[in-house]
Recover the amino acids of this structure.
């Protein structure tokens, strides 16, 4: 009986841990920083203080940048830092503190296709403003794989969002392989 009880308690603790929100205490200075929520589902990379996307490394494999999101299989817990969450938020995400007033380039990537992996990619850049919250996600609403960035605003205890103008981010000149 004790063994069965311990087994049930262990499973409950395990499942509670998988579905939890991992709230982290991070240094956030609204005078110098912004916050960003990155939704789960596609590979997402951030390039700080850059208006272009660096792709090739010296050995010409992989991608540079800070890898902030990738398709997950086992860890579905959100990492939160206290951003307000809109009603239409996706279920899984991570939140980060980023430097405001500097260009931020975002790259999203996924493989699609039934019989062959077809890569889809988009990259954009914008300058986050101090004390503001943003979220980024991929969408197919126009039939094309696109990066979307929204500002998250808390007003009168209600959370609303507004689109952020994101410019297309080219490849950095130093990352294009010489012919």
């Amino acid at each position: 009986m004790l063994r069965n009880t311990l087994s049930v308690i262990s499973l409950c603790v395990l499942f509670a841990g998988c579905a939890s929100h991992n709230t982290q205490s991070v240094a956030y200075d609204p005078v110098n920083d912004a916050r960003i929520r990155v939704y789960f589902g596609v590979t997402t990379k951030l390039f700080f203080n850059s208006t272009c996307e660096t792709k090739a490394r010296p050995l010409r494999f992989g991608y540079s940048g800070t890898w902030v999101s990738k398709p997950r299989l086992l860890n579905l817990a959100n990492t939160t830092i206290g951003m307000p969450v809109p009603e239409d938020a996706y279920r899984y995400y991570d939140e980060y503190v980023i430097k405001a007033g500097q260009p931020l380039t975002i790259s999203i990537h996924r493989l699609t296709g039934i019989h062959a992996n077809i890569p889809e990619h988009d990259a954009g850049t914008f300058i986050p403003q101090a004390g503001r919250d943003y979220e980024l996600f991929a969408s197919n609403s126009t039939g094309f794989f696109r990066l979307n960035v929204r500002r998250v605003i808390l007003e009168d205890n209600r959370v609303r969002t507004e689109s952020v103008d994101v410019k297309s981010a080219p490849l950095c000149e130093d990352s294009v392989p010489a012919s």
About this structure: The radius of gyration is 19 Å. Residues 2-18 form the longest helix (17 residues). The first strand starts at residue 21 and ends at 23. The chain is about 10% helix and 40% strand.
